[in-house]
Amino acid sequence: xxxxxxxxxxxxxxxxxxxxxxxxxxxxxxxxxxxxxxxxxxxxxxxxxxxxxxxxxxxxxxxxxxxxxxxxxxxxxxxxxxxxxxxxxxxxxxxxxxxxxxxxxxxxxxxxxxxxxxxxxxxxxxxxxxxxxxxxxxxxxxxxxxxxxxxxxxxxxxxxxxxxxxxxxxxxxxxxxxxxxxxxxxxxxxxxxxxxxxxxxxxxxxxxxxxxxxxxxxxxxxxxxxxxxxxxxxxxxxxxxxxxxxxxxxxxxxxxxxxxxxxxxxxxxxxxxxxxxxxxxxxxxxxxxxxxxxx
Length: 295
Fold this sequence. Notes:
The structure is a single chain. The chain is α+β, with helices and mostly antiparallel strands. It has two domains: about 5-160, 2-Layer Sandwich (Ribosomal Protein S5, domain 2); about 165-295, 2-Layer Sandwich (Alpha-Beta Plaits), CATH 3.30.70.890. It has helices spanning about 70-80, 105-120, 125-135, 140-145, 180-185, 195-200, 215-220, 230-235, 235-245, 270-285; strands at about 5-20, 25-45, 50-55, 85-90, 150, 155-160, 165-170, 250-255, 265, 290-295. The strands form two sheets. Strands 1, 2, 3, 4, 5 and 6 form a six-stranded mixed beta sheet that branches. The chain has a four-stranded antiparallel beta sheet with strand order 8-9-7-10, with helices on both faces.
């Protein structure tokens, strides 16, 4: 079988509401998740033995090989699927690490998609569905790699039809531990911020398919990222990134993604996004900056 290739695109949380914390410690979320046009790249040369090689621009920040979520995903699916065909994985890291972009989760999801292809499993195979959330809360939505309203602890996925939005992503190259940000919220185990009835009544009403960007921007402005404030207390540079994005021209929305430190801005046109990206690279050469689209 020839070498198989999957991209692992950056995940961006356009909104992120924390609704509470379950008794087992997991936080309940409601988040509008989209994906960017920049990605890690994962290949699989099918074979009898499992191995992983990591390279690319951000490989040095990816941590120990044994902790890599690609291997965790492969081993989880292999445990559920006797005789699963494995092989040599090669991961090219381009996304910043511990950045609120779901890089590791997207890599794991790409590994699951590659194994599904190599073993002729459907993406909705019950075994894939079972193992994905056990690897990480963002893995199920990254397996789909399409815009979704994600609820619960990542298991509830409602596909959405968003238009492409010109955007800039900025990371100050400061890692932020997701666990630290959630701990900074200070929610106790079993503490709910709103009741079950409120969840239904306050569920976001997103624009229908085919609606224009203006409708989506209006809806997004009614949301927030509840992790933005605690993350900025942990790493104050996040506030600097948000301020820098707000000073760019024709910006329509500025917010942090996930648990940070990556922030994004949405613009009126592709030209506006490209100009903002060039300006930010010149002013902050130490920052990671990507100009493209979200969808």
